[in-house]
């Protein structure tokens, strides 16, 4: 009997992570959901209950600080102990800050801790499981700023450049183990973070969270011989101007 596939999703309590989690549970995945807020994670779990799926669909919830390496290692080990596999890792958690040379050192450290080091910690813990399996799909949510820095977003852009570089390297490193690694680099997505960053577009003119979900679904459906290094998703509104 084929065991039910397992997905680990970080930043799962809202925005893109929540949308992806709800989509994957409908697709038959078991879920391990990670976020800082226990209350928000429980709210996502309640939405899953309302979908009236079977008992095996109840997610594992891990409210942790992802910048703490010991916590990351502990929860990944627990997922492995309970389910014995991780088929998909959606490395989604991240944060945003405005500024470049004017950013305080503690804020610089915080951004790189969340946007780079936390993802690195998860990869260190997840990849050995996938190597043991001989397969796995890792999807790192990066950002369009990893392909070209934005003015006044220097530190955020730098953190995403670094995360993209890590993703590109392990894409090539892990192919021989049957592990596929993809960077998704979207422009403006309709999220709270976009509002925080003062997006110039209304919700219906931005990339939708479901677009990220459907990109992941597309990646999963690729044949074993196809590995996608990166997917760039542009927001059409940036290029279309009213006449």
UniProtKB/TrEMBL annotation:
It comes from the Bacteria. InterPro entries: NAD(P)-bd_dom_sf, SDR_fam. Signal peptide: none annotated. Transmembrane segments: none annotated. The keyword Iron-sulfur does not apply. The keyword Transcription regulation does not apply. GO terms for cellular component: membrane. GO terms for molecular function: oxidoreductase activity. Keywords: Oxidoreductase. CDD domains: SDR_c. Belongs to the short-chain dehydrogenases/reductases (SDR) family. This is Short-chain dehydrogenase. The lineage of its organism: Bacteria, Bacillati, Cyanobacteriota, Cyanophyceae, Nostocales.
């Amino acid at each position: 009997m084929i065991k039910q596939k397992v997905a680990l999703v970080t930043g799962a309590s809202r925005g893109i992570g929540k949308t992806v989690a709800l989509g994957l549970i409908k697709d038959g995945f078991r879920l391990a959901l990670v976020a800082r807020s226990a209350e928000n994670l429980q709210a996502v779990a309640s939405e899953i209950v309302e979908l009236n799926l079977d008992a095996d669909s109840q997610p594992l919830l891990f409210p942790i600080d992802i910048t703490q390496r010991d916590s990351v290692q502990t929860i990944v080990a627990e997922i492995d102990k309970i389910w014995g596999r991780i088929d998909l890792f959606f490395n989604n958690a991240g944060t945003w800050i405005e500024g470049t040379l004017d950013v305080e050192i503690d804020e610089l450290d915080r951004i790189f801790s969340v946007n780079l080091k936390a993802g690195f910690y998860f990869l260190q813990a997840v990849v050995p499981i996938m190597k043991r399996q001989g397969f796995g799909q890792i999807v790192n949510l990066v950002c369009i700023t990893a392909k070209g820095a934005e003015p006044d977003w220097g530190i955020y852009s730098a953190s995403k450049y670094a995360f993209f570089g890590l993703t590109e390297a392990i894409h090539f490193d892990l192919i021989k183990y049957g592990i596929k690694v993809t960077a998704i680099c979207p422009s403006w997505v309709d999220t709270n973070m976009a509002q925080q960053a003062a997006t110039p577009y209304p919700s219906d003119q931005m990339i939708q969270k479901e677009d990220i979900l459907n990109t992941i679904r597309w990646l999963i459906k690729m044949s074993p011989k196809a590995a996608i290094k990166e997917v760039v998703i542009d927001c059409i509104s940036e290029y279309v101007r009213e006449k």
